[in-house]
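Researcher: We're teaching a course module on how sequence relates to structure. For the next exercise, students receive a sequence and then see the predicted structure as tokens, so they can try to spot secondary structure elements on their own. Here is the exercise chain.
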Amino acid sequence: MSRLIWWLRRDLRLEGNTALAAAIAKADEVIPVFVLDDRLLASPRVQGPRIAWMLDGLHALAAELRRYGSSLVVRRGSPASELLALCQESQADGVYFNRDYSPYATRRDQAVIQALTGTGFRVKTFKDAVLHEPGEVASMPVKSPIALAGEENARQRLASFIAGPIYRYAVQRNRPDMDGSAILSPYLRWGMISPRQCYRAAVQALETAPDEAGRLGVTTWIGELAWREFFAQLLANHPSSVNRNLRSVYDSLVWQNRQGWLDVWREGCTGYPIVDAAMRQMNATGWMHNRARLIAASFLCKDLLIDWRQGEIVFMQRLIDGDVASNVGNWQWVAGTGADAAPYFRVLNPVTQAEMFDPEGDYVRQWVPELAHVPGNLIHRPEKMTPKQQQQAGCILGRDYPAPIVDHAVQRRRALATYAASRANKR
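Model: And here is the predicted structure for the students to work with:
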């Protein structure tokens, strides 16, 4: 009887799983295996909520496998050693798995391939995590740019999004106070749903869109899938961008890197309500609205002049959808050090952003409850409250909620000067 091992990594689903389908077609028996990689578990980039989310997903997948009379094998250690031992123990013919593209994943997978093929076992890999792999799309020169876990929950989330919210996505996607996001990123990150499923569903939604606004909503969301693909391609072609500026012109940029500022930003106590709401949402749920991510990241890099790498690792530690390519790509985009034409002067004003995208203050009130009774016209500027208004709102500045740790206007000028100096040094 032929037997193959299906090695899962970031593809925790049964439906539309390329490696699984190939293994089932080839072998009489398929053994699903997940290896808890000690090197990843010990990394400061992989902690807390993301690990919990992954484990929930494994439990959900194990339950799904039991429905089909199968079971999930979980090992811990070096993937190369564990998979080799399991092949020998089970007398499997080899291992099938879906490809991953981060620098560490590439090195890990190559070690697995060498260990297995070197001892006579068969290894076959498949495209699954992206629509287009690095190299399939011609590279352009870079000029300067929740949810319950499990496959069934992923399908339900996609179905509910496609049923209506996708048609309003272009209008509502930047509103953290509304349920306008797909919130599929954690499922995509862990392969509980495939990008092909998402793309096919979006194409079908486009065909049945009720009007031009609806079609715009669908195409805007498809564009977000394309951004995910772009960042995967970018990292594959520039693996050093994980911890180095893609644009070397900013290698001499002088970050302030004040530890006290990083600490209050991390915990959501900056005195800027929209920034604090964003960070507290992440700390509480392991997920953050995309517009809030942009605001919080810009505030760290431009207002506080803290190195984007310090913020990037906080997001990787705390976001259940933390993905190396997307996280690094977006942080470098916000910081102005990545793949974008001329973004160094893009400094988001956290107050005006909040007034634009959380106009009633609902998002802030949800995540910063000490501001719950602040008047609407002051919700994003609580430091403007008079002593009497503070008493009435039950929020005394400096006691119940901090005053702003920096003056945005002052820090904006400082950031622009700092970036300009780095560009001048390069010349």
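Model: If you want an answer key for the exercise: Residues 138-145 have pLDDT under 50 and may be disordered. The first helix runs from residue 18 to 26.
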